[in-house]
Amino acid sequence: MEIIQLPVLSDNYIYIVTCEETGMTGVVDPASADPVIAYLMAKNKTLDCIFNTHHHEDHTGGNEKLLQRYPDCEIVAPASETARIPDIDVPVKDGSTVRLGMCTAKVMEVPGHTTGHVIYWFEKQNALFCGDSLFSLGCGRMFEGTPEQMWASLKKIRSLPDETHVYCAHEYTLDNAGFAETIEATNPLLKSYRKKIEKMRSKNEPTVPSVLAIEKSINPFLRCDHPEVKKAVGMEQADPAAVFAEIRKRKDNFRG
Ligand SMILES: [Zn+2]
User: Fold this and answer.
1) Is the pTM here over 0.90, yes or no?
2) For this structure, is 59 an active site residue?
3) Which of these is catalytic: 29, 48, 55, 58?
4) Are 212 and 161 contacting, i.e. CB atoms less than 8 angstroms apart?
5) What is the pLDDT of residues 139-194, one digit of tens each?
6) How far apart (Å, rounded) are the C-alpha atoms in residues 154 and 163?
């Protein structure tokens, strides 16, 4: 599977995915249509499907125009957000399987950022398209869910293999690193990773995709049940979901 990353708007990433055996092409979370159409035209490709992770405009804004340009294209999106995403052809839920040519993705529901947020895990390709659920060194804002839901969602993501590449929808990593250091100031891996991404950003290189093994070791939102993280927020005896709620609240108020 070929994965092309298109940076759009201020900090969004759109992913164009192609099954190399069949040429079938999809797009994940098209914030806008024009850059996708331009890319597909330049490569002489058509569009077979759109994968939406959730209903937000910066993930679905290109749907309508893409559908006009490629009328046979199917929209794959969360069943529970059908009222908020028009024209869904393939409503998906937890446990659904979707195909792009010979490539298969498992769908997992990860409520929290929105109630219907789903992620697409191409297991064989080690590729996870996770929208705004998990970011590198961060996670999405909890707009619609509860801390318990969102912590359960993040644990689900954490259970995937270490080698999984995390294709999230925003370039927030450097800002997230600044916040992560307020939680785990002494985590040596975090320090060295921050140096690495500072260099990358100074050259305007993307820090995404990340690798799940790295996220498990330095993303505070995946570490709410680790003693050192609990201690850092003064909640050694607390439930991990409560620790998550506290860290999420601190991040919402963080000005780096
Ligand atoms: Zn969103």
Assistant:
1) yes
2) yes
3) 58
4) yes
5) 999 999 999 999 999 999 999 999 999 999 999 999 999 999 999 999 999 999 99
6) 16
Active site residue 113: yes
* Distance (Å) from CA 227 to ligand 1 centroid: 30
Catalytic status, residue 56: yes
Neighbour-count burial of 27, counting CB atoms closer than 10 A to its CB (0-12 exposed, 13-18 middle, 19+ buried): buried
Fold of 2-172+207-215: Metallo-beta-lactamase; Chain A (3.60.15)
pLDDT tens for 82-121 read: 999 999 999 999 999 999 999 999 999 999 999 999 999 9
3-state secondary structure of 67: helix
Q: What is the DSSP letter of 24?
A: -
Element (H, E) at 166: strand 165-168
The Cα 33–Cα 9 span in angstroms is 11
In Å, what is the CA distance from 191 to each residue of 96, 99, 205? 38, 39, 19
CA-closest candidate to residue 210, choices 247, 244, 176, 248? 176
Catalytic residue among 54, 55, 117, 175: 54
